[in-house]
Amino acid sequence: QVDLFGSIMAASASTSFVKIEDDFVGYPLDVFCIPQHYANDLERVVIPHGVLMDRVEKLAHDIVRDFGSQQLTVLCVLKGGHQFFADLFEFIKRLNTNTPEPVPLSIDFIRLKSYHNTESAGEVQVIGGDDLESIRGKNVLIVEDIIDTGRTMVKLLEVLARFEPKNLRVASLFVKRTPRSNNYRPHYIGFEVPDHFIVGYALDYNEHFRDLNHVAILNDAGKVKYAAP
User: Fold this and answer.
1) pTM for the structure as a whole
2) What is the arithmetic mean of pLDDT over 53-70?
3) Contact at 8 Å (CB) between 185 and 60?
């Protein structure tokens, strides 16, 4: 039986992430390259692309350190996790060429459905995962873009636990501080962010903003403009 919470939460150190404070105002849009079609839809840039990449590289170091020489199946949660997954995977591959204990990697993909407009829906649908039998007895790292309420990740962990992986850990680039949280904390955290609706670096709002390199706060006009019909 896989422990969904205990081992993961115990291993997650409170100092092992970058905390974006609630009163952090961010950076003005005009000091960064922002796609013009989003110029009126964003408030401020919260995390520039370069900072994102440096943090992802450090997470790759942490993962290689923890799994050194052990086979690891990296499971990407689509769609939002694809950019984080791609960059993290590339950094791990580079590290594997320069370490005496490289981490052999295999990959798989799953897609979850939980968001409609800006609210996390009560029901979570797991799409795909037809070949999840392959994770039985394996070390598995789930790569997710953001933990919001935590309900989506708990649902995924419950599904994966049925296949009895050897070890099940989660890397999330963002964890949101929100009163709606169920207090789930992943093992690897990039940034802890305030309770704003953020977009960019493949984080979307109804399939928009995935082409924004930086992470920014979506303004009210943007929510209305790109709201689902």
Assistant:
1) 0.87
2) 95
3) no
